[in-house]
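Notes to self after the call with IL:
- keep both proteins in one doc
- input above output, always
- annotate only the second one for now

Protein 1:
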Amino acid sequence: MNILIVEDDFVSRKFMTKFLSKYGTCQTAEDGELAINMYKEAVKSGKPFDLICMDILMPKLDGYETLEQIRKFEEEQGFARQQEVKVIMTSGMDTSTNAMKAFELGCVAYTSKPIDIVQFDNLLQELHLI
């Protein structure tokens, strides 16, 4: 699995990389702007990401804006729904409003921080990623 972890917090980035590396190759981005560029490059190179785990609160572009631009790019490329990258939004803000907005923009799951690794493993299984 090809995984992109988008997280501005160094410790969270390291934790997610260590946790998810058992499932595939992990790359990281510190902000949404970099994540969009990495996503587009991965698609153009024929090695798209299977999963993006992305924080909501980030500098430059937040997770919402980043997700919106990723979905717009996929639409421009003519992606069918099943070709879209699976995006799991993460946040320390556990509110239904945040989750609802993330789902409206096209995420497949929303989870609160701190990440519960057993729950996250179950989520990856439900999404047929592992």
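Protein 2 (the one to annotate):
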Amino acid sequence: MKLPNRARQAGFTLVEIAIVLVIIGVLLVGVLQGQEMIENSKTKAIVNTMKGVQAAYNGYIDRFQTIPGDDALATMTARGWTQPTVGGNANGVLAAAVGQTFANNAGETQAFWQALRASGFLSGAANGVGPGALPRHGANGLIGVAVGAGAAGTVYGMPGMVVCASGLSTKQASAVDVIVDGPLPAATNIGNNVGNLRAATGAGNPLAPVAAVPAGLAYNETATGTNWTVCMKIA
């Protein structure tokens, strides 16, 4: 008596499984490389935005021989600028306190952004005030300016004027620091409190800078979960 044929069970061979694993590995590498490229683009965009503000600031001084934001409103109006709503006191000093860096609702900070936009050095409406009128960088945080005043006369320990970016991740803050000031010390990875770019981290977002030099802190993505503010000296 002949027994009926039984269906042979099919399965993956070791070679087929290996090929699938290789394909998955290639796809994962591609995804990770794509994410790294996106992150690098954001970092470069942050630095370019900060340097763009520096270029606009210097361009304004070259053209008008005055500091943007310090011009009286009447002076700006006389140039044919109809949008600005606030001006400065024309005393040759920009009053942009550290507490106003990302608030943009007092002092000459508002006039600073209005003047740069009215003059065409920066894009955007020249009548805005408050945080909503501030530029944003590649990681969608705020861009602000500050000038050291009072006894300390510094921002994060830097004298003069700085441009700041808020809401950066630890990885972004580290990368921006390296672009502006060069490689971090290999032994400690601490460079946030030296050079022309300094950074601090804290619970606030946006985190306004302060006069004092930040405490030295390694850019450790595992240990630091709060956002960073970075400030670069521009004058």
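Annotation: The first strand starts at residue 143 and ends at 147. The CA atoms of residues 86 and 111 lie 5 Å apart.
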